[in-house]
Amino acid sequence: MNKLTAIILTVFLWQIALTAEAQKQPSAQTQDTTLQRKTVSLPNGRAKAIPSGPYQDNWGSLKENYHVPEWLKDAKFGIFIHFGVYTVPAHGSEWYPRHMYNNEAFAKWHTEHYGAPDIFGYKDFIPLFKAEKFNADEWTELFVNSGARYICPTAEHHDGFAMYDSKLTEWNAKNMGPQKDIIGLLSKSARKKGLKFGISNHRMENWDFLYPTIKEKTDVLGPGYASFYGPPQPPLEKKAQNAAVGNEMVADPTAPQSPAFLEEWLARMQEIVDRYKPDMVFFDNGINPRKLDPVKLRFAAYYYNRALKWGKQVTLTTKSDAYLSGTVTDYERQGRPPKQVTDYYWQVDDPIADKFGYVEGMKVVSAASVVRKLVDNVSRNGNLMLNISPKSDGTIPDEQRKVLLDVGKWLKINGDAIYGTLAWTTELPGDFRFTTKKRMVYYAQSLLNGLEKMKLS
Q: pLDDT of 156-174, one tens digit each?
């Protein structure tokens, strides 16, 4: 039996169930741009109100009340985790669901390996995403041994599949695919082992992420799958083109999301906060536009007031100027953070390989390079959140495990110069790095020189 035949047999019953639902309405094989975004029904069409507390939904309130958590400034090293349906094809990147509907070469590869995108769509990877070897305790034990002090798994990536037990969408890992509350299991295990627990959410990008532009027919705009796909709306560049020829008006080219979608986004974020009580919430670039400030501020006030009731120090971490206050600035990839000591705290999210989500043939970095990045960041007032890429079966590849364990070996010897330190206010020109703690100044370059002796190549 060849691979394609096996895959078709595996998803046969799944296809029957989904097709039956889709056939209740006319097929949408053409790229029908009139389809409206499907959203959940909320009481009075609104997410929950902001709970009582000092935080209000304005920048002044965040600036007055927010402080970077001491635990984050002490932790220095965290683990980011991209784990989702996109790891099944393990091709290209974690943006596979976008590319299979937007890139002819990807569509060709997808058709050759799984079938045409109108027959085998992204939704059909879900039953193949089994995570049958996933063990939260094994993961968190590895993270502890790596020297990490906090973790941040992706609760929902751009694809719209929730990796947690949700009452607001049936398309979640507890109900489908693994049939496990991945986020819940990791949160319990991490805290049991003394790790702080954050979550990453990229749902704002889902608005137009899977909008099809390839010439082939696809399943994306089929009404029967609207509760998963959206259906996705035309991306900004498409809206601008349409407006130019008089086909539609663009009310807000910087934030096209509808009010109903934004209320659902907020409700889903509130659900995550209330269920898992994260110590940190990471947002990607999708929330950056200023026109999204009202809903972003409502979330921040909700989250921070809830955390005060829990008695926890928590934080948002966001990119660019998405939040004007009340956040820790995150820089994606190591090439982007400040190259000098700063008077504000920040972190870098950087992948252990050349991609964030697992793909076949990933090129994993060395432990020595991870340590150098960590030392650079800590000596300048930042953290390193190293992203790992588990496989779809729930295993962390051996080459990634080795890097983590080698970094842990280095931190066991040199961690006193990392954890709980401050950046020394004086930075000398050249390849010199310093940290300070309790009147002690650590010369980080001497620590780096010891990497070769530990064979952390």
A: 999 999 999 999 999 999 9
